[in-house]
Structures are given as structure tokens and as C-alpha cells.
Amino acid sequence: MSDRMVRIVEILIDSFLPLLKAGLAFTVPLTIISFLLGLMVAFIIAIIKVLNIKPFVSIASFYVWIIRGTPLLVQLFIIFYGLPSVGITLNAMTSAIIGFTLSVGAYGSEIVRAAILSVSKGQWEAAHALGLTKKKTLFYVILPQAVKVAVPSLSNSFISLVKDTSLAAAVTVKELFQVAQQITARTYEPLWLYMEAAAIYLIFCTILTFGQSKMEVWFSRHMAQ
Fold first, then answer.
1. Is the terminal CB of the chain with fewer CB neighbours within 10 Å at N or C?
2. Distances (CA, A) of 186 to 170, 181, 183, 190
3. Which domain does 57 fall in, by range?
4. Four-residue CA torsion sign, 45, 118, 145, 141
């Protein structure tokens, strides 16, 4: 083995633990917190749209339009670098969480809304015939069925978010990708270090994909048919 290859192997071995720690300490928490908060936003926006709650439906539609129509990286820059110019200063992690939460909320709301609308109208009519209000029908009859439909797409969004968190490096969050950049700046081995970072992302996503399949099986067995 050449001296260069020995050096590369040593760099990869030395960098693996720092990269893994960054993934576990920043990438994973950032993903989980942003997704859970975004999911709450998504359900609220979807319900507002389905029930056509005025004037909030116009605000919700405008929010979804803005977030889906602009790049996530630009949104992060506006939050972290732009807001201080108007007196609002947020730390890097908070800025990233807000940016990813807004993104998940906008895209997730359309997934949830589509899942709700996929439930047959007969379910609404049957609940109405039993004397249930529209809100009670939504929460007690429609949503349990819609959740099962939405789970696969929401799970895919969660897995995608793991990879999207690499954008947080642009706003100085010390997550996996930024640590890889820092090590690369010292070692001048971008190819191997970025490949190692990609491998760790792949490990995270593989584990989540396995969990997704188990969760889908659980929902198919326990949620309303």
C-alpha cells in the first residue's frame, strides 16, 4: 500500500468518530425536532384548508405558496443572515430548526390534505347522518383513516429531511457535513471525506427506511380500514 493510501486510511479512521458524533449530536436532533414541529404545522394548515376556516385559509395558502416556491437554502439565509438587519438575531441551531420546520410544514400540509381528501365522501355523509358535526367527523372519523394514507409519504419526507440537514452547514450549524468540510480544509482530501460523510448519511437513512417499513406494517394492522 502506497504512503498516500496509508495516509487516506488514517484520515478516514480518525475522522469517522467526529463525523458520527456530529451526526448524532446535531444532524439527528435537528431532523427529529424540525420534523415533529413541522408535522404539527402541517396538520394545522391541512385542517384549516379542509374546513375552509376563513380568513386563515388565505394565510395558510400564502404560507405554503411562499415556502414551496423558494429554495430552502435561501430561506435559511434569510432567517440566519437576513433577520439580524431588522433586529432579530437567532443562533444557528434555532435558525435551522425554524427553516426546516417551515419547510416540513408546507410540504407536509399538502400530503396530509391530500390524504384527508382521499377518504371517500361516503364517510362524511355517514357521520353527518349520525349527527356528527363537520369538525367531529374530521377528527374522529376521517383523520384516523387519512393518517394511514399519509404515513408513507410523511416517512419519505422525514428521510429526505435527514439529507436536507446538510444545508444547515451554510448557516454554521456544526452538523455532519460541516464537520466533514472542516476536516477537509485541514487534510485536503475532499473526495474521501465527503464519501465517508455520504456513507454515514446512508447508514442513517437505511436505518430510518427499515423503521419506516415496520411503521407502515403497524399502521396497516391497527388503523381504521
1. C
2. 18, 9, 5, 10
3. 3-222
4. positive
Ramachandran category for residue 36: left, alpha or beta (phi over 0 → left; psi -120 to 50 → alpha): alpha
Q: Which three cell numbers stand for residue 55?
A: 380568513
Please tell me whether the overall predicted TM-score, pTM, comes out greater than 0.85 for this model: yes
The three cell numbers of residue 30 are 435537528
CATH for 120: 1.10.3720.10
Number of domains observed in the structure of the chain: 1
Reference 42, options 89, 140, 111; nearest CA is 111
Cell of 2: 502506497
Nearest to 32 by CA among 155, 162, 148: 162
pLDDT in tens, 61-103: 999 999 999 999 999 999 999 999 999 999 999 999 999 999 9
Q: What is the per-residue pLDDT across 130-160, written as a single tens digit (0 to 9) for each?
A: 888 888 888 888 888 888 888 889 989 999 9
**Cβ distance 75 to 67 under 8 Å?**
yes
